[in-house]
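Q: How do we represent a protein-ligand complex in a form that can be generated token by token?
A: Start from the inputs.
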Amino acid sequence: MEAAKLHPEGPAFSRVIAGVWRWHNVSVDVMERLINTALEHGITTFDHADIYGNYGNEELFGRVVKRTPALLGHMQLVSKCGIKLLSDRKPAHRIKHYDTTKEHIIASAENSLNVLGAGQLDLLLLHRPDPLMDVDEVAEAFSLLKQHGKVLHFGVSNFTSAQFDLLQRAWSFPLVTNQIELSLTHHHPFFDGTVDHLYQHRVSPMAWSPLGGGKMNLDERVFFNLAAKYNATYSQLALAWLLAHPARVFPIIGTTQPERIGEAAKSLSVTLDRQDWFEMLKMVRGNDVA
Ligand SMILES: NC(=O)c1ccc[n+]([C@@H]2O[C@H](COP(=O)([O-])OP(=O)(O)OC[C@H]3O[C@@H](n4cnc5c(N)ncnc54)[C@H](OP(=O)(O)O)[C@@H]3O)[C@@H](O)[C@H]2O)c1
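Then emit the structure tokens for the protein with NAP bound:
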């Protein structure tokens, strides 16, 4: 699979990324099969967060890595921090909240590395915009993690354009992505300036829930025709719709089924023509563009 840079000075990731959020309550063997299936299909980038699986998914993934450390040479690891969940594993948390203090960012990244069994993260994201975020403190945490070779690149998730700029002004290296919800059914970031703002700065968005979390309610009559025309499945068409955007979107798929990982990887060979792209947009909007 084609790898591409998230930003001219950023990491090179597989164009389709595997999200680990739903890979919980599985055995180490199943986790290993999911990882290997992704790698076999050229999906080499894995999207984690400290909190996924009640703070357990990175550890589970790490058990596979620790079995076969050579895997690390074939993958890129992304993690996120900044959300604190109510959890039996975190008795000190009294309420779900955000924490973007220097201490928490560093502790979370170091813990991710430890449980993943990895020497460095390719990318660390702030998971959500924190109303109490002190941008200079965040920049200090990023600098220390970078200086010590623990994290190579930094970015954000679910930030508005203004929040992105606010943090970027305090951080001397480029923020290399904003990971946002983006799909055929959640397409407004293409129209409200969010993606334009990233594109202007040559920052690629990472798209979470690119299949609407499996809840897309699409008009199958239109998809039926396009599926036949492109010899593609509905999910491949929905991913191809994102991949067609010139801002170079990196969809993060969330399936827990190995065969669907392979199906998603093949979406890169589906090149929609311009009118079909608008046909799909019309299908979800219910009307033509103005
Ligand atoms: N930054 C953030 O705030 C944020 C938020 C949410 C997610 N994420 C990231 O984004 C990743 C993907 O999110 P997501 O899981 O919601 O993505 P998604 O790919 O839109 O949804 C995956 C869900 O759709 C189902 N599905 C139904 N039909 C499918 C088909 N034909 N092909 C593939 N899947 C199908 C899957 O079920 P099966 O498992 O049965 O295939 C699974 O439950 C997460 O793993 C996480 O890494 C980030």
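The domain at 3-215+246-268 is CATH 3.20.20.100 (TIM Barrel). The chain has eleven helices and twelve strands.
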